[in-house]
Amino acid sequence: MRQRASVIILCEHQLLFIERYKGGNGPYYVLPGGGIEPGEEPLAAAHRELAEELGLSGLTLTPVLGSPTPYQEHPAGNWLFIGTLPAGAEPTWQEDHKQRPDNRYRVVWRHRSQLDGLDTRPQELRTILAALPL
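The structure assignment produced for this chain is given below.
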């Protein structure tokens, strides 16, 4: 299994999630991101995934925890970055070719106070986000 690069995006005390419905499960919430390609640096993968998924570019991203974070669902590791959405940027789901009746994606904002009620994937994500000084 390859490593992943995921990004926490902040805007006015809100966190950006991808709301997913897959195979009859959902909604559940994931961070934007995806697999790191062979030879690709984690930071470059995070920027590529933001552009591919949300049409965002030019964000300043800072590593969180500074090293791969092993998630139960991704034993190879998951690089986690954090960035603030620049004024005027409007993230929208760019990969409509992935939308199917049994696999849907939607960009949503959730306040940090709503974390306890969210089904995040991986589950450890809620604990990591709650511990960060956001």
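Interim note for the steering committee: The mean pLDDT is 87. Residues 42-54 form the longest helix (13 residues).
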